[in-house]
Amino acid sequence: MSEIKNYFKGEDAPVQDAGEGVTRKVLAHSENLMVCELHFKKGAVGALHSHPHEQCSYVISGKFEYDIGGEKMIVGPGDSTYKQPGIVHGAVCLEEGVVLDIFTPERKDFLV
């Protein structure tokens, strides 16, 4: 087990290209939990995918059409979503915005 880190400065987190029109910053994380901040340009697509992690998303700003397991819904500021492990999901950004993603366990593939 790695050393526990308790503070993560946003200004120190590198901005990662997460796909056309989407950037990601990995914020606080441990082996069991991870928080990421994603910035979407209007029209950006989070392509349909699945992974073995549980995921919650909280919309800080903007408007998104999520597809979770084939069920689509438009969400905006203050709304949140849950994705169970293995479910196919994705999103289209309808209005430029920011989403906070929380994963358990951490997404080792996001660590640079």
SSE layout and pairing:
Elements: E1 15-17, E2 22-29, E3 34-40, E4 45-49, E5 54-68, E6 71-75, E7 80-83, E8 89-104
Antiparallel strand pairs: 1-2, 2-3, 3-8, 4-8, 5-6, 5-7, 5-8
Structure notes:
This protein has a single domain, classed as Jelly Rolls (Sandwich). Strands 1, 2, 3, 4, 5, 6, 7 and 8 form an eight-stranded antiparallel beta sheet that branches. It is about 0% helix and about 55% strand. The model has no long low-confidence stretch (mean pLDDT about 95). It contains no helices and eight strands. With about 110 residues, it is an all-beta fold.
Helix and strand pattern: EEEEEEEE
Tell me about the largest β-sheet. 8 strands, antiparallel
End-to-end Cα distance: 18 Å
Q: What does the average pLDDT come to? A: 96
Radius of gyration: 14 Å
- Sequence stretches where pLDDT stays below 50 over 5 or more residues: none
Give the second-level CATH assignment, the architecture: Sandwich
Helix content: under 10%
**Secondary structure category:** mainly beta
Give the beta-strand count.
8
Describe this structure in a few short sentences.
The protein has strands spanning 15-17, 22-29, 34-40, 45-49, 54-68, 71-75, 80-83, 89-104.
Keywords:
112 residues, mainly beta, Jelly Rolls, 8-stranded antiparallel β-sheet, 56% strand
